[in-house]
Amino acid sequence: MHNQSANDVTDLLRAWGAGDVQASAAVAPLVYDELRRQAQLALRREGDGHTLQTTALVHEAWLRLDAQHDMHWDNRTQFFAVAAQMMRRILVDHARRRQSLKRGAAPTQVTLGAVDREAQRDRASAVPRSSLDPIDLVALDDALTRLAALDPQKARLVEFRYFAGLSMTEAAEALGISPATAGRQWAIARAWLRRELEP
């Protein structure tokens, strides 16, 4: 999205947050492709066997975003970060429902290492195998909730990087911190999550 479009989106988001109902309708086509990209990333990380489709995830996330009547949007990065939170909740709710409907069903598996693998796909260095092992989406959500109680910023960083697919720079911008600080926090958060999610 070029700068003019990004500025248009930011202006429309601010108008939407101020109560302009028409701004919501105007911003939808401008953010739809990015929301689809986020949804595809999130669903790809779930692996095979998920029953939720990209379009359904985008539409459900949009409905939840549209219901945020008291939200004051600062910029498009913040918007997409909140969209990531919505998608996380939808995916986790969906995984919990599937597990409760199918007693004994295998948990929905995701890989936390997918974010790093995507970031490194053009590099020769490999991601350590331990960071690619599948983990249960519900267990990841529970661990993120525990992390948020200890350090909300690190939990949000994981959410932005993992569920929204934001780059380190974009995630840092959404959190109001430097990319270097975000990088350090990402390393700490991942190590903490790996320890929490060990069987």
Shape: globular
Question: Helicity level, as a percent range?
Answer: 55-70%
Total number of beta strands: 2
Record the strand order, biggest sheet: 1-2
Q: What's the number of helices?
A: 9
Instruction: Please state the structural category.
Output: mainly alpha
pLDDT below 50 for ≥5 consecutive residues: which ranges? Answer: 117-133
Strand content: under 5%
Please give the domain count: 1
Main sheet?
2 strands, antiparallel
Walkthrough of the structure:
The protein is mostly helical and about 200 residues long. The chain has one domain (about 5-195). The protein has helices at about 5-15, 20-45, 55-65, 75-100, 115-120, 135-150, 150-160, 170-175, 180-195, and strands spanning about 110, 135. The chain has a two-stranded antiparallel ribbon. Helix 2 packs across helix 4, helix 7 (about 150-160) packs across helix 9 and helix 8 packs across helix 9 (about 180-195). About 35% of the residues are buried. Residues about 115-135 have low confidence and may be disordered.
